[in-house]
Design goal:
By secondary structure, the protein is of the alpha/beta class. The chain has a single domain (4-293), classed as Aldolase class I (TIM Barrel). Helices cover 43% and strands 16% of the residues. The chain has 12 helices and 10 strands. The longest helix has 17 residues, at 113-129. It is globular, with a radius of gyration of 17 Å. The model has no long low-confidence stretch (mean pLDDT 94). Bound molecules: magnesium ion. Magnesium ion binds at residues 12, 203, 205, 234, 245. Magnesium ion is lined by residues 12, 203, 205, 234, 245.
Length: 294
């Protein structure tokens, strides 16, 4: 079985760092990741430079990375202006944001869930006209830092709306990293009648050390696509206490050892982890990286 890994460290990771990494270092980081065999890389976000200075150089980074034919290079897009910039930068795929929780949506994007969905419509149209694929991120699919547990029927409703708009794939995000494997059973059980496994990506955070267990449960239930971050970079500035994403090395190590094909050469990937750890001037939390990669 083939597992698709989307490396989100360059966007979801670096967005949350206090340090600003140079364009040159970001380009080198992305090139090391693609050379290690990762199938998809979320490179940056076309947000306003004054809002997220860490990612204010999306055009420059996209302009300088090596665009290997088989790797999909994607970017987060918050609005029409961001989409215009992303299309001009020739991204392969765009990701749009929605939340299953009203409070999180308002605090994270300053819009209700309905307003966020309304804003997605024209963006999906623009992407389809440009013939690039669209992912919808849905945050707080298990719980919200403000509202507590999320009703999976609410998740199904928002997923259904995104699919009706023409979104190709949904990334279900456990934003605060509370999920345990039985939550994955519940979530996929409820969402499954509108969202087939082939269109499902899980975006897990390892805040409580349960992300890998949840990934394995999801694989057993037919999910083959996961977001991970180099060395476990990341977190969420709007979700108090949220630690890093599931580390790419941890998922790759497990999958490769179990005979699930990821296409990722772990030894080569460690080169990317060491590079970004040095650029950030700190160690990374990923377990396999700590054990074998440093
Ligand atoms: Mg994340």
């Amino acid at each position: 079985m083939r597992i698709r890994i989307t490396e989100v460290g360059a966007r979801d990771g670096l967005q949350n760092e206090a340090a600003i990494i140079s364009v040159q270092d970001k380009v080198a980081f992305v090139d090391l990741i693609s050379a290690a065999g990762v199938g998809e890389i979320e490179v940056s976000s076309f947000v306003r430079r004054d809002r997220v200075p860490q990612l204010g150089d999306a055009e420059e980074v996209f302009g300088q990375i090596s665009r290997s034919g088989s790797v999909v290079f994607s970017a987060l897009v918050p609005n029409v202006r961001g989409m215009e910039r992303a299309l001009a930068a020739k991204v392969d795929k765009v990701a749009l944001l929605a939340a299953a929780s009203e409070t999180f949506s308002r605090r994270n994007t300053n819009a209700t869930t309905q307003e966020a969905l309304d804003a997605c419509g024209p963006l999906v149209e623009m992407a389809r006209e440009a013939r690039i694929s669209v992912r919808g991120y849905l945050s707080c699919v298990v719980a919200c830092p403000y509202e507590g547990p999320t009703d999976p029927r609410r998740v199904r409703e928002v997923v259904g709306r995104l699919l009706e708009m023409g979104v190709d794939e949904i990334a279900l995000a456990d934003t605060i990293g509370v999920a345990v494997p039985s939550d994955i059973d519940t979530l996929l059980g409820v969402v499954g009648d509108v969202l087939e496994p082939a269109r499902t990506t899980l975006h897990l955070h390892d805040t409580r050390g349960t992300a890998l267990a949840c990934a394995l449960r999801a694989i057993q239930l037919g999910v083959v696509s996961f977001d991970t971050a180099c060395g476990g970079l990341g977190g969420c500035p709007y979700a108090p206490g949220a630690a890093g994403n599931l580390a790419t090395e941890d998922l790759v190590y497990m999958c490769n050892r179990m005979g699930y094909e990821t296409g990722v050469d772990l030894q080569k990937f460690f080169g990317a982890s060491r590079f970004i750890a040095r650029a950030l001037g700190r160690s990374l939390p990923g377990r396999v990286y700590k054990a074998d990669g440093r």
